[in-house]
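Annex B, item 7. Sequence and structure tokens for protein A, then protein B.
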Amino acid sequence: MTQPAHTASTPSQALLQVEQLALAYGGIQAVKGVGLQVFPGELVSLIGSNGAGKTTTLKAITGGMPAQAGRILYKGSDIAGLGAWDLVRQGLCMVPEGRGIFGRMTILENLQMGAYVRDDTALVSSDIERIFTTFPRLKERRSQLAGTLSGGEQQMLAMGRALMAQPQLLLLDEPSMGLSPLMVDKIFEVIQSVAAQGMTVLLVEQNARRALQIADRAYVMESGLITLSGAAKQLLDDPKVRAAYLGE
């Protein structure tokens, strides 16, 4: 597997390092010795068809599924056995597939829950206003129950809630799934903006073209294995990737 190239100013230690990760559902081997790295400040995409093992890999990283084999290192430490609560406190947050918002809470209450791990309560209100600036629709509906929002609005809220925790590493699982083209544009615009501000992002996405267009590096996953990796722009031009994932 190709290792990423780094400039002299880039930290040599990966923020996230997955080594020979193996995962199974019952007798079905879903992930078969996967390895990947995400370095500070990078936007890395993990692309692949449905059922390739992408979401399963994220579940293991965030403590939602025990690994059969391999290691997951975050900031150089093995995070096996840590729950999502511990990981959020350490700066690792995920926006899950399906969004996972609190449907019976208002938009404002959801955002406040995102900041629950923070100690700087005086700054929470200003950060909520920053989220509202990013997603004006949420501000208009701040007192509305989250469960009554459209799919796109729920995705905005899920991302806003994760950002309220001030993560060092943001994991996004299929953020564009089921959204209108206009909403997809907005979501990818926000992902680019967040990454441009220095946040490290690992993006799992079936929309391979859009994911590769905004990423620094990318991994291609097939049947539980990483089959290609490298600079996102190079993979965007790779004939195999174009044929398999870009409809060419």
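Protein B:
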Amino acid sequence: MTKRIFLIVLLLAGGFFAQAQFNGILNKVKNKAKDRADKKIDNEIDKTLDKAEGKSTPSPAGETSTSKPSAKEPVATKAEEDNAIKSYSRFDFIPGDSIIYTEDFQQDEIGEFPLLWNTGGKGEVVTLNSYPGKWLRMYENSSYLTGNKKLFSENFTMEFDIIFHMKNTGYTYPMFSFGFLSSSEDSTTDNKFLDYPSKYQAGEVLLRLGAGNTTYTAIYAATDNRRTFTSDQQEFANLEKFYGKVSHVAVQVQGSRFRVWVNGEKKYDLPKALATKYIFNQLYFKLTTSSYNDDELGFYLGNIKVATGKPDTRHKLVEEGKFSTTGILFDFQSAVIKPESYGVVKEIAGVLKDNAGLKIKVIGHTSSDGDDNANMELSKKRAAAVKDLLAGEFGIDASRIETEGKGETQPIADNKTKEGKAANRRVEFIKL
């Protein structure tokens, strides 16, 4: 009975759930004023929503946060950075080695909707006091399609950052969902995909945001407007600890296999979740409505990346003598390694441990953004930071590792494109 109620709730609120075989139920709900027989069903659903979402239960003290990022947020200490890395100790996500699409909104005007994107609601590019770069502020009751126009291939990875700023007043938070779809022969930003992302094929991750350990998540997949997969519901209280901070989401698709990590925690590894009739080629993001005002909640999206394939680290480094990755990420204009880089560095450490005589040189590279000399120094510091992590966290003898920085002097892609810049911001490992 509980699972059935949970499914009804999701059908009312989720992304592509209001389709196909469920149209009869949804039409009854929409027309309840015209049909007395539906009133009993509506009342039961409303009660279930309130109970499941904690609407009548105020959040415990300390669960609220300001609606805007604080400019006085303290800078992380070295100990906090080390703890952040260790929190990703089981993070085995490895991004694809060829970038298909990336978005950091750097080309967009502040206060404007992103160039080439589409929405059924509203959104604007903003800067935040405590977080570098530009972000897309999403609003309730809105759907978003990215500007991507390329096929993803059967195997791909996607990543993005999201900031949830909540000011809890006792009401239910809106649901946030994201996914990927196939537009088949149609444009990836066609208006119909704002309402019907599963017209051809889609996979969607739903996050029911809550307070007081009520957050949960679920996954859905559909083909030709027909739901083909529904995951088990997973509790996700840990996400609430990241409210007011940057959360990192990573997804890996390998044919029908669907894996999801949030803040280093693997939430799903589903071997047969996705259909493979079509090739995916678009990302989408959604927010449902709530009783909150715009100034009480903030949802900020950034640093989106889609890449194809899974790199064969061992073969490329040991046999070919060179391995290059864009999966080791750093804070903005900094040599501080982001914790979501753990899986890639761990993979390199494993190769070094299995090949005791192997010595390497770590080379840092940047894009052409910024000052030439500053980029050169930054690339040197980033290479040194990777060496320090390999030695300090994984016990690799530092004498086996040399470092060098090349700055922006050896691009492998066009620095005039977003994807080219992302490809050039890389770390290389050369066999000595």
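Comment on protein B: The radius of gyration is 23 Å.
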